[in-house]
Amino acid sequence: MGEEAAHYYRHPTLPEVDLLRARFVTHRFTRHIHDGYVFGVIEAGVEEFEHPGGVQRAGPGSVVVVNPGVVHGGHAGAPEGWAYRVIYPPVDVVAGVAAELGARPGTPAFPDPVLDDPASADLVRAVHRAGEKGDALAASTTLRRALAGLLTRHAHGFRGGGASGGGMPRAVREAREILHASLVGPPSLDELAEAVGTRPFPLLRAFRDTVGLPPHAYLNQMRVQEARALLDEGLRPADVAARTGFADQAHLTRHFKRTLGVPPGAYRSARTIGRVVPAAPGRSS
To answer: Is the pLDDT confidence value at 275 over 70?
Structure first.
């Protein structure tokens, strides 16, 4: 299947929708979350990924689905690694298509993380091919068709997106708000617990049970999301690292690549120029 490679770019008519075409062998995605959805089709090899329902395996032709806010990882499930194409649509894009299909208001939820759906797999591929060619009409049409098919055949009910929601314990909700406001110079666990009126260990346990990550790992995910926004504005990775609380550019690159599969420089080039930019995959531990 060739060497490791990753190409990250944006949809030609919906720049908030990101696209990734990649082949990985030794690369491992750390446990992370996305604000929006993940829809990927496995082109070759096998991907294994951590998921709340247990470790999942997806082989050629499978469609991988991750709901917003769900903690997951990813690594090769076979010696030859895996190759795939991924679409990252935000919640409002998917919910908008659902509304057009007559669904009640809410965030669509997909209960199964691995789907056997050749029609959806073909449409995900078609979205990529049209996007790579810059064919705006074809890319927008196939994206809508892909989302409509996935929703019609696989969505099951609606719920508040991701790790937020009315059922979240007060201390966890307040701790998240503090972390969102403290990307640079965050409090210690003891200070965080004191600020929300609890003890460190109960907060750590409740936070991990509710969000799926401990506070320090969740903070790094929020830093990566903010880094994406700043890179979209055209800021240099070194400046982004300083503004999002990472120790330096290397620290940003390590977390960014483990979450998105490409380093921040390649992501910035693709997002600001709007063309496919190959990313040197490197290695991650």
So the answer is: no
Q: Secondary structure of the chain: what % helix, strand, coil (to 5)?
A: 45, 20, 35
Question: pLDDT tens for residues 168-208?
Answer: 799 999 999 999 999 998 988 889 999 999 988 889 889 98
Q: DSSP code of 188?
A: P
φ, ψ of residue 5 to 5 degrees: the values are -160, 150
* Look-up of token digits 């064919």: 135
Is pTM beyond 0.90? Reply is no
Hey, how many other C-beta atoms are within 10 angstroms of the C-beta on 52?
Answer: 10
Residue 157 is given by DSSP the state -
State mean pLDDT over 27-44.
Answer: 94
Structure tokens, 115: 């789907």
Give the model's confidence band at 46: pLDDT under 50 very low, under 70 low, under 90 confident, else very high.
very high
The alpha-carbon radius of gyration of the chain (Å, integer) is 19
Cα 64 to Cα 114: distance, rounded to the nearest angstrom:
5
The Cα–Cα gap between 61 and 47 comes to 11
Which secondary-structure segment (H or E) carries 30? strand 29-32
CB 14 within 8 A of CB 143: yes
Q: Which residues pair with 281 in a beta bridge?
A: none
Phi, psi for residue 141 in degrees, rounded to 5: -70, -45
Closest among 124, 24, 130, 36 to 77, alpha carbons compared:
24
- Encoded tokens for 19: 């696209």
Backbone angles phi, psi at 49, to 5 degrees: -145, 140
Which pLDDT does position 273 carry in this prediction? 53
Helix (H) or strand (E) holding 86: strand 82-88
Residue 191 CA: distances (Å) to CA of 27, 199, 216: 35, 9, 13
Q: Which two tokens stand for residue 229?
A: 């926004």
3-state SS, residue 279: strand
